Amino acid sequence: MKDWQSMRALVISDIHGNLHALEAVLKVAQGCSGSGFDEIWNLGDLVGYGAHPNEVIDTLRASPARRVLHVRGNHDRVCCGLSSSQGFNPVAALAALWTRQHLRPENREWLRALPMGPIEAGRGVLCVHGSPLHEDQYIASMRDAWIPLRRMPAEVAFFGHTHLQGAFSCRGESWSEDAPAYTEGSRDEVQQFTLAMLAGSRYLINPGGVGQPRDGDWRAAFAIYDQSERQVTFYRTPYDVAAAQGAIRAAGLPERLAARLTTGR
Ligand SMILES: [Fe+2]
Q1: Number of domains in the chain
Q2: Which end of the chain, N or C, is less surrounded by CB atoms within 10 Å?
Q3: For 172-210, what is each residue's pLDDT tens digit?
Q4: CATH value at residue 24
C-alpha cells in the first residue's frame, strides 16, 4: 500500500444522476498517467437532474477505491427529504421530486446520512460542497473566493456547487484565478491541464461538474489531486451524451435537462 504522501485522489462533484458521465470519468481516471487513483473525494450533488440516481449511488458505494469520501450537496439534501425545494427553480424542483420518488429506500437513507462539509480529507486539505464557510455558498469568481480563501482553516479546499472547473488562490495580498486552458486537441478527446500548487499559497479548487457542466464545455469534468507532486490536474472527457439525454427523456424529466447537456450551459 502507498503511504499517505503518495496519495492520488480522484476529485468529483455534481454528478447529478448522470451515470453515463460518471462511468466515463471513472474509466478515464483509472488510466490517468498510468497511476490511476487511490481515493475518491465526492463533493456532493450525486443526484437531482439526471435519470440514474440509484445507479450513481450504487456505483460509488461499490467502488474498490481505498477510501471514498462524500460531502452532501444541496440537491442531495432536497432529494432525500432533509430540506424543502424552496429556492429551487421549477425545473430543479421537478427533478428533485422525481428523484425523491425514484430513490430506493436504502439509498435515500444513505443520502440522509451524508456529512455536511467541510470535512478534512487530509492534513490541511478540506472537501466542501459550496464554500468552506457555508455549504450552500456559490464561489464563481475571485470576489466570492477572497474571504473563504483567507478564513478557511486549511491551505487547500476542494469545492463544487457552481459546476465551473478551475482554481482560485492567494498568497499574502496577491491572488490568481486559473481556468484550465485546453489548447490542444478537440472536444472529442480527453484533455488535461495541470496546475502546480505553490507552497505558501492557499487554494480553492473546483473539479467541475461531472454530470452537468455549465462552462460551455459539454464534456464531463473531474480532477486528480496528487499530494506528493503537490499538483492538481483538471480533465475533460467525452461521454455518451445522447444516452444520458435519452434516459432523461424516457423518464419524463423536463426537456431542458436533456438539452443543456449538449451545450454544457
Ligand atoms: Fe450541483
Answers
A1: 1
A2: N
A3: 999 999 999 887 678 789 999 999 999 999 999 999 999
A4: 3.60.21.10
- What distance in angstroms lies between residue 135's CA and the mean position of ligand 1's atoms? 12
Cβ 45 vs Cβ 22: under 8 Å: no
pTM for the whole thing?
A: 0.96
Within a domain: 173:
no
What's the CA-to-centroid distance between 173 and ligand 1, angstroms? 31
Give me ligand 1 centre to Cα 211, in Å: 9
Determine the structural domain holding residue 80 and report its residue range: 4-122+186-201+210-263
Report the sign of the C-alpha dihedral through residues 205, 209, 215, 221, in that order. Answer: positive
Whether 27 maps to a domain, the answer reads yes
For ligand 1, the distance from its centroid to the CA atom of residue 87, given in whole angstroms, is 14
Extract the C-alpha cell encoding 93.
424542483
* 72 alpha carbon – ligand 1 mean position (Å): 10
Contacts 24+ apart (CB under 8 A), 82-89: 82/112
